[in-house]
Amino acid sequence: MSAPPEIVRTVQTLRARVRDWRAAGERVALVPTMGALHAGHLSLVRLAGERAGRVVVSIFVNPTQFAAGEDFEAYPRDEAADVAALAGAGCDLIYAPTAAEMYPQGFATRVQVSGLTDELEGARRPSHFDGVATVVAKLLIQCEPDVGVFGEKDYQQLLVIRRLARDLNLAVDIVGAPIARDPDGLALSSRNAYLTTSERPTAAALHQVLAGAATRLRAGALIADVEADAIAALAKAGFDEVDYLEVRGDADLHRLGPGRLDRAARLLAAARLGRVRLLDNLAI
């Protein structure tokens, strides 16, 4: 078994390690995570290793992206398991700062990305993307990587981060990684651990319904009809509530329809099942 990567907990030490790598002419990639690592995270690490000679994985459960009543306190945390998972996965350094390191006393700055954050996840979790944008901006500034790798499962978040990096002139290439899935299609997520045994088969219906909807859209079906039918199918499958299931522009998330598809698009969905809120999306 490979030795576990080194863990650093301060910006100063992180920068020292990255400075040494750069002095040796090496490229650096960053994979930001909130821990509770699974195979999907490890696929991001492997992709990062293809883009750079050194890979930093950050582990930080960011309090500012959780609203009141969300699962910040209950969010799964197991640093020892995360470190073991990263051993042999191509991670060179784990950056696991404390909340005080990330948000020291008197911290008063917020990064806000307008437009892209107004709908979908932003409409249902109004403070969420401000927290995401702020912590990701800090991580990119702290590490100064050549490459930042983010999963496409949180597709709206990926676009927000790309806009953030562009607007702030950050010298980093933001790379989107394909969604990692279980054999039945369920997108891997740390929150899948909340699913009960009886809920797990129902959860897989989200991807199956989206795949069927995408097939109809490509065949020329009306967007409004496909969206309505897919929402009904999820309710029939046993989901408690569908927050949204919509066809949006692939690059800008503009609402499409009600007619036929005439541009590159994404079908995005968020649905609730028990205590779990599942997200998924498909390119069309």
List the helices and strands and how they pair.
Blueprint: E1 6-8, H1 11-23, E2 28-33, H2 39-51, E3 54-59, H3 79-86, E4 93-95, H4 99-102, H5 121-124, H6 128-143, E5 147-151, H7 155-167, E6 173-177, H8 200-203, H9 205-218, H10 223-237, E7 241-249, E8 265-273, E9 276-283
Parallel strand pairs: 1-4, 2-3, 2-5, 3-4, 5-6
Antiparallel strand pairs: 7-8, 8-9
| Secondary-structure content class | alpha/beta
Number of strands: 9
Query: Rounded to an integer, what's the Rg over CA atoms?
Result: 19 Å
> What's the overall geometry?
globular
Total DSSP helices:
10
If you average the pLDDT, what whole number results? 96
End-to-end distance: 41 Å
In what order do the strands lie side by side in the largest sheet?
1-4-3-2-5-6
Q: Classify the beta-strand content into a percent band.
A: 15-25%
State the helical fraction: 25-40%
Order of helices and strands: EHEHEHEHHHEHEHHHEEE
